[in-house]
Amino acid sequence: MYLVTVLGNLLIILAVSSDSYLHTPMYFFLSNLSFADICFTSTTVPKMLVNIQTQSKSITYAGCIAQMYFFMVFGGMDTFLLTVMAYDRFVAICHPLHYTVIMNPWLCGLLVLVSWFTVVSLFYGTGLGVYLSSDASSWRGMIASLMYTVVTPMLNPFIYSLRNKDIKRALQKVLRITLYVQ
């Protein structure tokens, strides 16, 4: 599942960055979401796989704090990017004639930057308390954590892009170029 998550999200980033037709706000946010999903999943899954392989559940204090920090940053990034994507679709549907004026490149960059800074600032106030007070030994909590940290980022490429004709076309183009080069 980890490999599917990373490869699926990397394909979206590659498709969006290589096809100039996809250089629009919606796809800009989608590629940022894919990047955040890769980072979000990579904060916990590699350590979990090492723990399973070595049958050890230990982590250093510094490793725990670092993992907690990046988990909260990229988890929050996902939330804020999904919110920004919803706003983008709202503007496109409710104000189609003003879309290009409202969703200009400056605003898109600003929305992503604000998302990053908001997540970092919220992390220190709320994330630490929630993470430290959870009951890490309950099976229900572990299953919920697995669903949130692995399954959701794995499904995002399928949900947001594989049903999209533009992304399919861009991916076919990228794959054709890759096969042609080999």
Keywords:
182 residues; mainly alpha; 84% helix; 0% strand; globular
Structural summary, described in words:
It is a single chain. With 182 residues, this protein is mainly α. The protein is 84% helix and 0% strand. The chain has eight helices and no strands. The chain has helices at 2-18, 25-42, 45-54, 61-94, 99-102, 105-133, 139-162, 165-181. It is globular, with a radius of gyration of 18 Å. The mean pLDDT is 81.
List the helices and strands and how they pair.
Layout (H helix, E strand, L loop, with lengths): L1 H17 L6 H18 L2 H10 L6 H34 L4 H4 L2 H29 L5 H24 L2 H17 L1
Helix pairs in contact: 1-2, 1-7, 1-8, 2-4, 2-7, 4-6
> Counting H and I runs of at least 4 residues, what is the number of helices?
8
Q: Distance N terminus to C terminus?
A: 27 Å
Major sheet description: none
H/E element order: HHHHHHHH
Strand content: under 5%
User: What does the average pLDDT come to?
Assistant: 81
Write down the overall geometry.
globular
Helix content percent band: over 70%
